[in-house]
Recover the amino acids of this structure.
């Protein structure tokens, strides 16, 4: 009996194998879109399909907000470039707080010229009165966001409008808007100078005011504006290759160095390349190397911040601002509100720019996707 049943048993055992032969294999990752394929000029050492999908992921508006521009440079050449609807390569886009990187470069040139001194009291006249503890604040401490001045950076918008508690919003849009430096410089100390890190949109405005004071002392607003504009253009922007850049000024003629800087995505990428090459452009040293090294060195009160630039380290609360574990330790970035990024990774010979508008809820997903994009390129962790 068992012998007679054997052929039938063997036939039944073969059925799953035969059935599986006719079944299609599980689908792999989807291919990149036509837009992503068109964006990639060279994969820069990353897997082509993965790179295309990562680019597509940064243009999924429902997940990460509206990406208006993405530029990826490897070894100084654009390897991928994509724009949102209505945006062209020459379109000027806001960097928001990335403007502080530009302001810090201008201050570096003034220090190099001997017109400002890093470790002397910041030359704000109101702080030099006898007994004023703000006279202890140095230029170095301002640049490293540890002035100790009272400041509330919150940009949260309550249902009724701009928060009266936010110094950033008051300075930019309310009672401080006509003379932003006066508003920022009038704040009292809430901590000893140099003791505490606090990211502050007011600080780059103070720095821009110091630039105007040394470039055009006791001048009218128009003369202050012209003096800073010409110095910034001739000593920073044009040598860097940021010729499209436009900068905003308040009614007092002070450069709004913490927000109102607009440039094309390619020009923002030149900023990342300049920092990645420690102040050199095509081998010519535009800004002293030691100044850019200072910008990229950890602040004594926050290892995740240098001077005008964020670093790839955990900050004091152990919350990562950039990408520890996903990108090399020496990766740095200029960051702006609503998801603006200029990222430089010297070990990967890489610069990445993302410009657009993301909500607070979307910024976490955007950050994660940018980190995964960086990890695609060789030379990472």
């Amino acid at each position: 009996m068992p012998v007679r049943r054997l052929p039938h048993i063997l036939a039944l055992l073969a059925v799953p194998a035969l059935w599986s032969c006719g079944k299609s294999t599980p689908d792999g990752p989807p291919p990149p879109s036509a837009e992503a394929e068109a964006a990639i000029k060279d994969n820069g050492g990353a897997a082509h399909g993965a790179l295309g999908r990562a680019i597509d992921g940064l243009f999924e508006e429902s997940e990460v907000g509206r990406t208006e521009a993405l530029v990826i440079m490897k070894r100084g050449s654009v390897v991928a470039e994509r724009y949102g609807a209505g945006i062209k390569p020459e379109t000027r886009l806001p960097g928001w707080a990335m403007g502080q990187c530009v302001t810090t470069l201008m201050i570096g040139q003034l220090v190099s010229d001997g017109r400002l001194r890093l470790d002397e009291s910041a030359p704000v006249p109101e702080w030099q009165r006898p007994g004023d503890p703000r006279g202890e604040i140095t230029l170095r401490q301002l640049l490293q966001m540890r002035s100790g001045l009272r400041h509330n950076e919150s940009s949260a918008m309550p249902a009724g409008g701009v928060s009266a508690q936010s110094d950033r919003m008051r300075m930019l849009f309310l009672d401080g808007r006509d003379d932003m430096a006066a508003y920022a410089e009038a704040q009292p100390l809430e901590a000893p100078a140099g003791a505490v890190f606090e990211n502050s949109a007011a600080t780059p405005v103070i720095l821009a005011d110091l630039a105007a004071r040394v470039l055009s002392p006791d001048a009218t607003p128009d003369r202050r504006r012209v003096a800073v504009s010409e110095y910034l253009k001739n000593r920073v922007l044009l040598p860097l290759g940021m010729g499209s850049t436009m900068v905003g000024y308040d009614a007092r003629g002070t450069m709004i160095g913490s927000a109102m800087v607009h440039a094309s995505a390619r020009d923002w990428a030149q900023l990342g390349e300049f920092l990645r090459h420690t102040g050199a452009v095509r081998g010519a040293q535009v800004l002293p190397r030691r100044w850019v090294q200072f910008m990229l060195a950890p602040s004594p009160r926050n290892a995740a911040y240098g001077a005008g630039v964020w670093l790839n380290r955990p900050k004091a609360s152990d919350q990562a601002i950039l990408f520890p574990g996903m990108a090399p330790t020496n990766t740095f970035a200029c960051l702006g509100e609503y998801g603006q990024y200029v990222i430089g990774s010297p070990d990967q010979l890489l610069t990445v720019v993302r410009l657009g508008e993301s909500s607070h809820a979307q910024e976490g997903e955007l950050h994660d996707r940018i980190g995964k994009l960086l990890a695609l390129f060789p030379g990472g962790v």
Q: What stands out?
A: The mean pLDDT is 91. Residues 29-91+312-381 form one domain. The CA atoms of residues 149 and 188 lie 6 Å apart.
